[in-house]
Amino acid sequence: MIRHFLKLLCLLAFVPSKAQAPTEKSLLWEISGNGLKTSYLFGTMHATCDATLSPKVTEGLDNTQQLYLELDMDDTSLQLQMMKGLNMAGGKKMSDLATPEDYATVDAFLKKNMGISLKTMNTLKPFFVSSLMITKLLDCPMLSIEQELMKKATESNKEVLGLETVDEQMSVFDAIPYEEQMKELVKTAKDDMANDKKEFQELYALYQKQDLNGMLEMSKESKNEMTSKFDAELLTNRNANWIPRIIKIATEKPTFFGVGAAHLGGEKGVIALLRKKGYTVKAVN
């Protein structure tokens, strides 16, 4: 079960005065200028019903020398590194973060949907337990765009690397209060994922329309406060951290970057931040 969960987890000249947020509807963007080797930025969705790569995406991958995802997903030590970050700091337990009644509700919910008891995961960060349910949000077998990108890159003998370390990604879920994470897990259990399923389908529809700004706005308005209240921890802080790394990497080699699509849109998204630095970022339609 933990191995499956980790796969899901594994399962961004002239400087304008204001970041230029993207208005075009596209998931694939060409980045160039100011000494960059022409590279590509692609918005992924970590869980999907269709992981087919478009001809333009495949062409962009073919025209670059390496693939960067959020994490180095072909690192053989990845699962071991992630295991170290699953538990809450300070010896906290989920049974201490909820009333006995709410804890029992979550326990029953997990037994019904996953066949496991919450008691066996009592020390895990609640968000990770919520992530176990991602396959239940789909009405199809879960596919991974990242896995498909890796497959294509490996076939071409391209190296697969990561924009951030496991420790950096896992620390996000220490920055978000455990109490808030537990509150959302309880809400999910009480409505048997009804809202999560509804919002996921709406998000998936926006992704299929390649509407980056729509996806970002939806996350801000989500009833799930993990996404609506903590966008700085989940998105914007990480976007800012990625920019100097993307610039350095793409200055050295033409690179294909594949990151979650929610990281791309808006004035604090990766596209706008690169434009603010004076780089050319244009949609590939």
UniProtKB/TrEMBL annotation:
<protein>
    <submittedName>
        <fullName>TraB/GumN family protein</fullName>
    </submittedName>
</protein>
<dbReference type="InterPro" id="IPR047111">
    <property type="entry name" value="YbaP-like"/>
</dbReference>
<dbReference type="Pfam" id="PF01963">
    <property type="entry name" value="TraB_PrgY_gumN"/>
</dbReference>
<feature type="signal peptide">
    <location>
        <begin position="1"/>
        <end position="21"/>
    </location>
</feature>
<dbReference type="InterPro" id="IPR002816">
    <property type="entry name" value="TraB/PrgY/GumN_fam"/>
</dbReference>
<keyword id="KW-0732">Signal</keyword>
